[in-house]
Amino acid sequence: MQKKSISIIGGGIGGLATAVLMAKDGHDVSVYEKNECLGGRASIFSEKGYTFDMGPSRYLMPDLFEKFFNEIGENIHDHLDLAQLSPSYKVFYPEDNTLKNINVYADIDRMADQFEQMEAGSGQKFRDFLKTSGEQYGIGMEFALRNYDSLMDFLRRDVAIKGMKLNIITTIDKYVARFFKTPIIQKIMQYTTVFLGTAPSQTPAFYNIMSHVDFAMGVRYPQGGLHAIATALVKIGKKYGVHYYTDSEVVTVNNEQGIVKNMILKDGTTITSDLFIVNADQARFETEMLPLELQTYTKKFWNKKTFAPSGFIIYAGIDKKLDALEHHNLYFNDNRDESFGAIYDHHVLADDPSIYICAPGKTDPNVAPVGKENLFILVPITNGIDISEEEKLSYRDKIRKIVEEMTGENLIDHIEYERIFEIQDFKDRYNAWKGTALGLGHTMMQTASFRPNNYSKKLSNLFYVGHNTNPGIGVPMVIVSAMLVKERIEEKVK
Q: Could you tell me the pTM of the whole model?
């Protein structure tokens, strides 16, 4: 392909990774980001001496990050200082009217012993589960690392034979129940479905590959937070001549004879390029920036899709250490079905929500003042609803009480800084469809060839990268998405 001018709309991880790939190949690349900070959901902010990752907080699937850095000829360890977390996370759960906890490690033997103490026979079953999970991880990555044009790609004989080795018929809750009967073990083996954007009853069982990620690969933390990934990509991009523009929101798209002619920024600047790659929300971009006749996927299409939950996030600066917490912490409520029902069926805020807490100061001394703690508190909530100010404060108080129960500490009198981020904020900051925190969920009918393509079928120089196209949601997946859109462009552009 001859040298092209390329404009990337959106400076999330997918856009930043694509910029590096295309610039390294000699193209003239510019990135335009709506917000004040590059990184998309992996942005960062600081207040009163506390530094907060705004979104992603878990560094998973290190093999995919290394694959990307190898692709661009870089040693990942020259750019990221990665710490292996042990334990990977701590789980709190109510049982017999008390709040119990268990540490989860990336150590199969250790976890097998712990599970065996909780349920006779579960130790060997855990090993069997992980053996299958590891085998399926390799197959699953083959499916993830490719573009799809239609269902026929998925049904090719070689693909179908490998696909038969995956659990594509049953759901992950039923699959896990074949191995374990104890509720807390089931919850531990299924909790990642929340970060896949679906309920266990809707998630294909082949996503049990995430257990291999958790228990065999483990969880890492890049010093400086997940935003360090964005920082590294920008540094490498600048080496190859990428231009970056923040506070640069696209408000108009002009087309002519089957191509995007140019785009207009909010300040009136006109962007003209050979190719446009959109890392902004694909659903919002297509339905709001393009006329109906040029939309590959219309509002009717997107409205039928299952989007991941939104999030009720509290960024909190605490003026003391919370010794009961680890770096990553999970609170599982008593009634999981009630929580998922509130999110996916009734579209209300759950009365007794499950909670995720990240306390990065356990690993990184630079994210909070000495002797203090910064907390990222996340409650998955339904998308697409409006939350009043009164409801927001009431829900915050409910979450605070659960965190106090988890830590055994009084928090109210020790909060130095607090910021709430919820559905409307996801819409405003990220243009997120229905305020989703993650993107298009991973149901069976929204996986592989069933996800939206990464190119426009109406405008030949318009492409997409990010969590709504293949392979899916999560930082490792959008990194792969960047590699896939590069392949797609090389296939379609001469």
A: 0.96
